[in-house]
Each structure stands twice: as C-alpha cells, then as structure tokens.
C-alpha cells in the first residue's frame, strides 16, 4: 500500500525506506507475539514504518544571490531498521531506525567573519564587528548570537542582536552591532559569536572563542 502511494503522491517520492527485514508489526494480541485472534482476525501488516529524505539546503538561497548547485551536503546511511518484539502493551510492535550522518561543508571559507571588540563584561554594552563576502544573501532577519563554546543547537544562544536593528556603524569593509550589557551573562566564561542567515537557514560564520 505504501509503495503504491509513493508512485501516486509526489511528496512521498523523494522519501527513502530501508529493506523490511522484520515481521509485520501489526496486529498483535496484547502482551504476546501472537497475531490477532479476535473475531476480526486482521491480517498482519507492516503498519509502522520509517521513511526519510534529505532536504537540499541550496534551495534556501535568495533569488537575488543564488549559489551554484553543490553536491549533496548531507550523506545518510541507514545502519539498522528493526522491530522490537519484546514490547506488548500495544497491538503494534515499535520500530526503530539508526542512521549515520556525514555532514559536508557548504563552503570552504565562511561567508561571514565575526570579531568581538574590546573586553566583554556585563558592566557595559559590547560591540561586534563583522564582514561578509560580496555575494552573501543577507536579510533583515539575520542575527548574531552569543553562545557558550559547547553549544549543540542554533537555539542554544544566550542572547542575540539583529544585524540591522542593532547596527551602529557601517562601511564597505565591515559593520558593527551592539549587545546590551543587560543581556551579557554575569557568570562569564568562554563564548562564541555566531552569525545566523535567515535565507540559508544556517549558521554561516563563527568567531574564535573569547572570554566574558
């Protein structure tokens, strides 16, 4: 049924599934490995499935400054695709997939170069200088975030500044934005600055680590 749907539904055609090398996962009697013994006696089926697709990040580049097509930036390998027959609290058996991901850089050089200016502390407003390559597709929704060095996700920022709303100076070589002292963490530590591009939906520049 799924394979037939993939032939008809355009949005499913880009999705990939691993080989079904486990028994149908539906429908079981509760707390057993026995298929349906009720009056309906439903036929076993591979109801629980895992499909995936890799989004082409180049599609997010703005039309005004599109980048040339790159090779696929994410390589996905399915390591295993299995059911777990020991679980019996449902008439379905759970299915899991384990994947390996290889992330390739979109560009060899950063699109944006960032630097914290002067000494950073929670006692005064601080400045950030940055410069971008000429073809960079900037947006009013771009922002620069302050992150702890060990951050794991783009939403792990401590605070951020909008590159346009918080800009205080600009010339052909670089721009400056400020962060309010009220937003700088009192406890200090080692931090990074990251430039987030709304058009590319990713971080496109990271500063060297520095102390607050």
Automatic annotation (TrEMBL):
GO cellular component, one term: plasma membrane
Example of a GO MF term: phosphatidylinositol-4,5-bisphosphate 5-phosphatase activity
Domain Inositol polyphosphate-related phosphatase: 1-97
Listed InterPro entries: Endo/exonu/phosph_ase_sf, IP5, IPPc, SKICH
A Pfam family that the UniProt record links to this protein: Exo_endo_phos2
Organism per entry: Himantopus himantopus (Black-winged stilt)
Domain called SKICH: residue spans: 112-212
Name assigned to this protein: INP5K phosphatase
Family note: Belongs to the inositol 1,4,5-trisphosphate 5-phosphatase type II family.
Entry's Gene Ontology BP terms: negative regulation of glycogen biosynthetic process; negative regulation of insulin receptor signaling pathway; negative regulation of phosphatidylinositol 3-kinase/protein kinase B signal transduction; phosphatidylinositol dephosphorylation
């Amino acid at each position: 049924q799924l394979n037939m749907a993939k032939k008809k539904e355009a949005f499913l055609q880009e999705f990939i599934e691993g080989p079904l090398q486990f028994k149908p996962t539906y429908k079981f009697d509760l707390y057993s490995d026995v298929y349906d013994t009720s009056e309906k006696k439903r036929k076993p089926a591979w109801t629980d499935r895992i499909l995936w697709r890799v989004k082409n990040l180049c599609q997010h580049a703005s039309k005004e400054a599109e980048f040339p097509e790159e090779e696929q930036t994410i390589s996905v390998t399915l390591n295993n695709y299995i059911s777990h027959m020991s679980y019996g609290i449902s008439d379905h058996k759970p299915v899991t997939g384990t994947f390996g991901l290889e992330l390739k850089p979109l560009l060899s050089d950063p699109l944006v170069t960032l630097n914290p200016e002067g000494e950073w502390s929670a006692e005064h407003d601080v400045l950030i200088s940055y410069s971008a390559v000429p073809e960079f597709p900037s947006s009013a929704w771009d922002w620069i975030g302050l992150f702890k060095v060990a951050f794991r996700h783009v939403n792990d920022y401590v605070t951020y500044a909008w590159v346009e709303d918080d800009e205080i100076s600009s010339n052909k070589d670089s721009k400056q934005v400020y962060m309010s002292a009220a937003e700088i963490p009192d406890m200090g530590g080692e931090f990074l600055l990251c430039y987030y591009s709304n058009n590319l939906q990713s971080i496109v520049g990271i500063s060297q680590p520095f102390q607050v």
